[in-house]
Amino acid sequence: MERDGISRWHRVLSARMRRRRAEYASAADVVLLDTALGSENSGDQIIMQACDSVCFSLWGGVGLKRIPTHYYVEESERLADKVKILCGTNIIWKNMEEQVQWALPNDLHSYQNVCLLGTGLSDVGIEQESSLYTKLLYHTLLSQNMLHSVRDERAKQYLNSIGFNNVVNTACPTMWSLTPELLSQIPKKKGRRVLTSITDYCFSPEEDLEMLKILQQEYEHVTIWVQGSHDIDWCLSQIVDLNEFELIGPSIRDLDAVLADPDLDYVGTRLHAGIRCLNKAHRTLVITVDNRARQIGADTNLPVLERSKIHSGALEQWINSPQETHIDLPLDAIEEWKSQFSLSKNS
Question: Record's Pfam families (predicted)?
Answer without folding.
Answer: PS_pyruv_trans
